[in-house]
Amino acid sequence: MASKLPIGIQGFMGLRNDGYVYVDKTEYIYDLAHNGKVYFLSRPRRFGKSLLLSAMKYYWEGKKELFRGLKIEKLEENNPEAWTKYPVFYFDFNGANYNDSDALECILNEHLDRWEEKYDITPEKEQTLGSRFRNLIIAASNISGLRCVILVDEYDKPLLEAMEDKKLLEHNKGVFKGFFSTLKGFDEYLQFIFITGVTKFHKVSIFSDLNQLRDISMNEKYAGICGITESEMKEYFADDITEMADKRKISKDECLEKLKKHYDGYYFHQDGMGVYNPFSLLNAFADRSFGSYWFETGTPTFLVNMIKNSGADLRRFTDHTIYANDRTLKDYTGESTDLTPLLYQTGYLTISGYDSRRDRYILSFPNEEVKYGFLESLLPAFVPKATSTNGLDIFTLDDYIENGDTEKIRDVLTALFAGINYTLETDPFEHYFQAVIYLVFTLLGRMVQCEMHTFTGRIDCKVETDRFIYLFEFKRDGSAEDALKQIEDKSYDLPFKADNRKVYKIGVNFDSKSRTLEDWKVSE
Q1: Share of the chain above pLDDT 90, in %
Q2: 406-418 and 434-443 helices cross at what angle (nearest 10)?
């Protein structure tokens, strides 16, 4: 029988009381509670951070009945102090719009108002938010005779939403500094602190003021704390896998392989276990389809603009040449031009390898859902005219490539480049032309390689279909004839001589002055 899937459910109590399937992560809660005090965890959006914090909340509130049959119940069975009811302050920064200058203060004020009413506290006039929070912690500790638990969910949402408004970003950082700095020197009142977010802004005082904070984001021991491992998927969703395979008319093994290809591949430590995106996996089971779910809300505009304006070589995302060290991946200043830590922390890149000699990570897309969703979100920024309404969409171009219609391929590409708004002062050929070629052909889902190495050199782009192989060579301010001659002179087509498919050699010239695709020649 298929599971009752907790899609969009972030509250632990509702999930347990209403009989939804729960992938048991409570052994992690036990470990964290008994082996430390102040933690930070970074994970991409829709990865189960809120559900984890909700479970922590009820654990610290002593709601033993919610944990019956779970791993933590057995782990705590000989602990006389288990299920003690601690005062818990749970900050949830989800669900609010932080585009207004006072939005963050309003959310903090709502939390404080509710807790002041609970503990019968009347704040003094003109009292700061931070001072009110200190008074609450002291009052809750005195009343209960216990130290307090602080849980902060998605602390960085007010910062990420202000990324394109530097004034607002600095304002929100200042609000956090004034508020969470109250925790500094308050150890005697604090039992446990756990903070989650997508990114770790290391210049935000929520981190600098908590000197003993332990960042477990890239700790092997906690690699599976969020997300769903392959063994968990097979244990908790066995019936769903079977029903999905039946629905898609494929074998169970084929179904598992496709699920892995689409939704697995996230690694948060070079030796840690890989995990599936839980949001996408649950939706796939619900729909019995291998759809794209993580991008339903779209890639943040600020991230698209940063990538476009950075001059980043998009081809590096798929050729395993993005590198980073431990420090780079853990911290993000909000000011650096290096997009690597932000792309890693937000889940667009993950660890795909590790060079122990040079102590550096190799990064790439985790799976096909992320790869194609990410590139689709970038295409409108690079090519505004790429829409279905004017016949310049991917599907139309796909038909022409499938049918070997090189003239129509030329017409579509010429029109696409004519609609590009160049904004960088850097070389448009290097940044835009290659980027658009890469985006367009990769999104076609074809086997595409840009700058493919051959024994005589590098050809700019190769595209394959079942019937055709296209070899492209691009020139700037030259001629298509020269580009085609280079393909011939360097025998770029030699590796495909024994291939039964038809080979098209295509020379293209790009004019940097008019910034258009100016000339095109084809040889078979």
Answers
A1: 51
A2: 130
Q: What is the pLDDT of residues 107-117, one digit of tens each?
A: 999 999 999 99
Contact call for residues 476 and 443 (beta carbons, < 8 A): no
Task: Report the alpha-carbon distance of residue 255 to residue 253 in Å, rounded.
Answer: 5
Tokens 């505009």 map to which residue?
A: 301
Type of residue found at 329: L
For 219-246, b where at least 16 C-beta lie within 10 A, e where not — what string? eeebbbbbbbbeebbeeebeebbebbbe
Query: Nearest Cα to 387, choosing from 395, 170, 105?
Result: 395
Could you tell me whether strands 360-364 and 322-324 are parallel, antiparallel, or unpaired per DSSP bridges?
Answer: antiparallel
Query: Which pTM value belongs to this model?
Result: 0.86
Q: How many CB atoms lie within 10 A of CB 110?
A: 11
472/454 Cα distance (integer angstroms): 13
What one-character DSSP code corresponds to residue 124?
A: P
- What is the model's pLDDT at position 392? 58
Going from the N-terminus, what domains does the chain have, and what CATH number goes with each? Answer: 24-222 (3.40.50), 301-369 (no CATH), 383-523 (3.40.1350)
Interstrand relation of 350-355 and 360-364 (parallel, antiparallel or unpaired): antiparallel
Report how far residue 434's alpha carbon sits from residue 447's, in angstroms, rounded to the nearest whole number: 16
Residue 46 has pLDDT above 80, yes or no: yes
336 phi and psi, to 5 degrees?
-70, 145
* Cα 129 → chain centroid: 32
Helices (H), 249-325: 252-263, 278-287, 301-310
- Neighbouring-strand partners of residue 432: none
Given a contact cutoff of 8 angstroms between Cβ atoms, the answer to whether 321 and 334 are in contact is: no
